[in-house]
């Protein structure tokens, strides 16, 4: 847990937002418990995911193609949730040690370091959903949208349906990742190139090892890794919306237990953005203890489980195209100056930690 700063309006130096002094004291008390101090749930999670994934590959022939594929899809998607937890400073306070547990490319498509840097940028809540500053935004600026072809606009609309996001979303992410890698190599971005070289070298070793147990690289890419990435799109389908109040941009999804476990409670997304250093096993507890307050803070941006998204948006597109109030980076600065900061309740919503 971060070090508390008594001058921070219930926020530590990391930029977390507490609902009250009482909540801050409550979280500090929890962080002193031996389970939280030792991060036992996260260590257990690391053991289960790695043991499960490697044993599934080793026993591939005995498990059979169907059972083995299902297990690898679930474990790979779970691994991506674990990578997110590692980014936010768990289970150790040392970034390099945490990175060791997330660098192996079980999820294939991107280096851990690039994901880490991009996700940290996403946690600057004043820019959340900004089409040019939030790397995880699904919105576009007016100038971007006007330059798109009719065909790409059609693709965007399909991608904004729940079923379309599961089918097309991973492909669009992969294309974007490949283009980004190409720009890095072309421009000579040494740090990014090193990340990709290490990532690809590890991936080749992993593919060679899996092939010895009867899993071809192409099979793993198409039948395991792509569906695993698709599964993560269930969680992020409508995780953020573009509204003026930054606290109301992140959803609260009261999902069933199996989804909460797979996504490590990130369905309580506003709580995570308010308290990004809070470990995954604390998110639900803190949400339930302050449920009414968080629902009010989110301006009722609440979902009653992922089935609600399937029911409402299976083939109906979300209205996520041109951002409603950020036309460009320059306009965003002007907008923020005019607002004097985005207010949430009686306290200004903080920016999130950059580590």
UniProtKB/TrEMBL annotation:
Fatty acid desaturase domain sequence ranges: 67-290
Name listed for the protein in its UniProt record: Fatty acid desaturase
Lineage start: Bacteria, Pseudomonadati, Pseudomonadota, Gammaproteobacteria, Enterobacterales
Key words, A-Z: Membrane, Transmembrane, Transmembrane helix
Transmembrane segments: 34-54, 60-80, 193-211
Origin superkingdom: Bacteria
Keyword Transmembrane among record annotations: yes
InterPro entries xref list: FA_desaturase_dom
Organism encoding this protein: Yersinia massiliensis
Matches recorded under CDD domains: DesA_FADS-like (cd03509)
Pfam families the UniProt entry points to: FA_desaturase
């Amino acid at each position: 847990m971060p070090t508390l700063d008594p001058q921070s309006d219930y926020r530590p130096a990391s930029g977390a937002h507490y609902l009250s002094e009482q909540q801050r004291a409550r979280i500090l008390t929890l962080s002193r418990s031996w389970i939280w101090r030792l991060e036992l749930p996260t260590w257990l999670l690391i053991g289960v995911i790695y043991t499960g994934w490697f044993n599934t590959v080793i026993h591939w022939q005995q498990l059979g193609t169907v059972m083995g594929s299902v297990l690898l899809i679930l474990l790979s998607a779970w691994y991506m949730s674990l990578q997110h937890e590692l980014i936010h400073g768990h289970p150790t306070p040392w970034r390099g040690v945490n990175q060791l547990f997330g660098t192996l490319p079980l999820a294939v498509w991107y280096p851990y370091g690039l994901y880490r840097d991009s996700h940290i940028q996403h946690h600057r809540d004043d820019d959340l959903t900004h089409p040019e500053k939030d790397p995880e935004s699904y919105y576009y600026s007016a100038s971007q949208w006007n330059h798109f072809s009719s065909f790409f606009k059609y693709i965007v609309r399909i991608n904004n349906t729940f079923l379309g996001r599961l089918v097309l979303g991973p492909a669009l992410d992969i294309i974007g990742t490949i283009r980004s890698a190409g720009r890095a190599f072309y421009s000579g971005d040494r740090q990014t190139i090193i990340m990709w070289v290490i990532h690809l070298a590890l991936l080749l070793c992993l593919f060679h090892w899996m092939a010895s147990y009867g899993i071809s690289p192409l099979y793993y890419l198409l039948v395991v890794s792509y569906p695993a990435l698709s599964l993560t799109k269930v969680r992020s389908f409508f995780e953020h919306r573009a509204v003026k109040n930054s606290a109301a941009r992140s959803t609260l999804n009261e999902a069933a237990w199996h989804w909460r476990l797979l996504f490590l409670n990130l369905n309580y997304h506003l709580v995570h953005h308010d308290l990004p250093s809070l470990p995954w096993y604390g998110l639900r507890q803190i949400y339930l203890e302050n449920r009414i307050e968080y629902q009010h803070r989110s301006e009722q941006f609440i979902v009653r489980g992922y089935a609600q998204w399937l029911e409402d948006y299976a083939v109906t597109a979300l209205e996520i195209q041109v951002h409603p109030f950020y036309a460009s980076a320059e306009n965003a600065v002007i907008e923020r100056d005019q607002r004097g900061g985005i207010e949430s309740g009686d306290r200004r919503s903080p920016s999130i930690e950059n580590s």
